[in-house]
Amino acid sequence: MDTTKKNNAILAGVSINRRPAWEIEDSLEELAGLAKTAGYSITGKVIQAKGRINPRSFIGEGKVEELLSLKTGSNACLVIFDDDLSPAQCRNLENALNCAVVDRCGLILDIFNRHARSREAKTQVQLARLEYLLPRLTGRWSHLSRQRGGIGLREVGEKQLEIDRRIVRQEIYRLRDKLKAIDKERHIQRKARDEIFKAAIVGYTNVGKSTLMNRLTMSNLFVEDRLFATLDACTRTLKKARGKKILITDTVGFIDKLPHSLVASFKATLDEVRMADFLIKMIDVSHPRFEAQMASTQRVIGELGVMDKPNLWVFNKVDRVPGAIVENIAARFPGSSFISAAKGNGCEELVRTITSIQEERMVERELVLDYRENSLLQQIRRHGHILSEKYTENGIRVLFRMEGKRLGLLKKAGCLSA
Question: How many angstroms separate the CA atoms of 34 and 42, rounded?
Fold first, then answer.
């Protein structure tokens, strides 16, 4: 064991009310992956079974002593708890262990902060981190006023802790206003795409969503085999869609116990899921607990209020599992798609499935256009499929099929009745 590193960490999990041991082990394995993504090396773990949590230290005093011994022996600088800790519990544990203590929520926030790239993602993460930080500020924190210009920050008799809290609150208000402005920008962008069929790729983090996005849209988005490599919703046009314009959106990944502050802060990004016409629910079929990932995906979809949207289970990484396993899963989940986004297996069939779903939403209409309304005819050609086109004395008689939501273009022009 390497005890010289300054980034050694210990994991701590609690089994409450006889929670199955395999669930705890799976959750801690995922927590270890999160810690690795954040740059930590795991040097040990502690699990305690309890009927109820200790309101003072979350775990019992005996386990605190065990953690202290393990921390000292492995030269760990951090203890990571798999569950949410109250600010008081976190402070008490830090005092008892004489090292930094963070819960799952804080670790995920740290990862998001490291991976945020766009202005929107950075703003969303910064807001979530400050909302997490505010109730945890103590006199042990460095003075935030040194990071600010400082004019008007100090008042006679005001303690430094209160100054720090006031600075954080002011910054939270500023970031909320900034996100409102970003949300307005996104609303304008969505309005411009209202008439276009949109599919959103959703699923657990690191299942290959961005890889599939690149495959379907021939893009070159950032892809890396790590948790939460993608934080921004990105929209591109589906290629090989037989002339029909379909938009595909890659979204931020889901995970168990996703911090509520992040869900709230990423509202503008998650709205892309709410506005989609169709959901591609992606699963890593090679993961030993892929069904738990399916359950988590369904849970988040339910929380977003989009459970009733048309959707398709897409099982990725079929190249990593035996064919017999794929056949068994296909029998259990009929109608699903099985692909390898990295190698392209099954992706052309997936494109056909997506376009067929769009075509199912099309309706047949006939209208007569004035010869001067050539722009409307071009819109029909671009957004629909012309079945027949006849030039008569009264104008151009067009029989066509178009997605129902796009008929609004023609209704606005007065060509179709509302």
Answer: 11
Residues 6+ positions from 186 with CB-CB distance below 8 Å: 268, 271
- For residue 32, pLDDT over 90 is answered with yes
Token readout for 318 is: 């079929």
Q: What CATH number should be reported for the domain whose range is 8-108?
A: 3.40.50.11060
CA atoms of 266 and 271, how far apart (whole Å): 8
Q: Summarize pLDDT for 169-208 with one digit per residue, the tens.
A: 999 999 999 988 988 887 777 676 667 889 999 999 889 9
In whole angstroms, what is the distance from residue 86 CA to residue 83 CA? 10
Spatial separation of the C-alpha atoms in residues 359 and 355, rounded to whole Å? 6
Residue 97 is which amino acid? L
Of the candidates 136, 11, 21, the residue with the CA atom closest to the CA atom of residue 82: 11
pLDDT band at 223 (very low <50, low <70, confident <90, very high): low
CA–CA gap between residue 134 and residue 170 (Å, rounded): 11
**Residue 370: CA count within 13 A, CB half-sphere:** 5
Name residue, tokens 């910064």: 126
Tell me what the pLDDT averaged over the chain comes to. 84
> Which pLDDT belongs to residue 231?
64
Residue 51 burial by Cβ neighbours in a 10 Å radius (0-12, 13-18, 19+):
exposed
Question: Which residues, in sequence order, are bridge partners of residue 395?
Answer: 392
Task: Please check whether residue 399 is in contact with residue 386, taking contact to mean a CB–CB distance below 8 angstroms.
Answer: yes
CB 257 within 8 A of CB 104: yes
Burial tier of 184 (Cβ tally within 10 Å: 0-12, 13-18, 19+)? exposed
- Alpha-carbon distance 94 to 97, whole Å? 5
Distance CA 81, CA 72 (A): 17
The superfamily CATH assigns to domain 194-359 is P-loop containing nucleotide triphosphate hydrolases (3.40.50.300)
Please state whether beta strands 78-81 and 100-103 pair in parallel, antiparallel, or not at all (unpaired).
Answer: parallel
Token pair belonging to 250: 């890659």
Q: pTM to 2 decimals?
A: 0.78
